[in-house]
Design brief:
21% helix, alpha+beta, 4-stranded antiparallel beta sheet, 280 residues
């Protein structure tokens, strides 16, 4: 890699610096390989925070090595499947950069936890954000009890939820009729506290957004986040393309693949979003 002197010439996060992380671990994608991983590297290279791109990829690789210790001669395709698998454990960005999970919970979860997301009984609607939810059980204090399978976050001094939508995949399998079979024009609605934030439209079966949104936190016991995906059409009504909904108190800080649900609340086979949650 070419060495530069000034920060402007060689920023902390760039495509080259993030790619260097996977190159050192012999996981770099070649031409025509691991296209989702290649796009993820590009998105991390555009991170504005100093820790964002390079550190995020470093943590992803470290977690992959820890969770797949028996994988010999791992390939970039193996690493890509790990990143986009909803069944894997959450990749936590630790330290002061947004993680609200105690060290004890992180270690316990690493050994015992399986990712669990509450599936909606019915798809949420942007026009009717307020929906009945079961009352939260237990305390909102930190816990090191691995039997809970949930990292309960602490609300102290945490006033904002930052949600980043990296990219998505799987609609060609679960929603093949979107846009009459051609590439859909997908966008994401994020709903929190009655406010709706929307990503730009991306005409692709594997859309890449790289957009981040902030939401003020009020009551973690009652706050919820609703994520909806739609296919934009110019003439007809936008078509539903999956949803995710859960209490803010149950969201895991870090990078994770979020499985979407269909209209009846059944988890989709492949449709998912690669997202990052942070609390600041």
């Amino acid at each position: 890699m070419k060495l530069h002197i000034t920060h402007e010439d060689n920023p902390r996060n760039s495509y080259e610096t993030v790619l260097e992380v996977v190159e050192r671990n012999k996981l770099e994608p070649k031409h025509g390989e691991a296209e989702l991983l290649s796009e993820f590297i590009k998105l991390l290279g555009k991170e504005k925070e100093e820790w964002g791109g390079v550190k995020a990829m470093t943590v992803c690789v470290e977690e992959y090595r820890l969770q797949e210790p028996n994988v010999k001669d791992a390939t970039c395709n193996d690493f890509e499947r790990f990143l986009f698998s909803p069944s894997r454990k959450v990749i936590v960005i630790k330290g002061d950069e947004g993680s609200m999970t105690s060290k004890a919970v992180i270690e316990a979860n690493r050994e015992t936890r399986k990712v669990r997301f509450k599936e909606p009984d019915h798809p949420s609607s942007s026009k009717a954000v307020k929906q009945d939810l079961p009352k939260a059980s237990g305390s909102l204090k930190g816990t090191d009890d691995p039997s809970t399978n949930i990292a309960i976050i602490q609300a102290t001094n945490k006033k904002k939820l930052k949600v980043k939508i990296y990219m998505g995949t799987g609609w060609d399998t679960d929603f093949p009729k979107l846009h009459r079979g051609s590439s859909p024009d997908l966008f994401v609605n994020l709903i929190h506290g009655g406010k709706i934030r929307k990503t730009v439209h991306k005409r692709s079966w594997t859309p890449s957004w790289g957009e981040e949104f902030e939401f003020p936190l009020s009551s973690l016991e009652n706050d919820e986040l609703v994520v909806e995906v739609y296919d934009h059409t110019l003439i007809f009504k936008d078509k539903f393309a999956g949803t995710f909904r859960d209490r803010v108190s149950k969201l895991q800080p870090g990078i994770q693949a979020i499985p979407l649900s269909d209209k009846v609340g059944k988890e989709c086979k492949t449709a998912r979003l690669l997202m990052r949650f942070m609390f600041v």
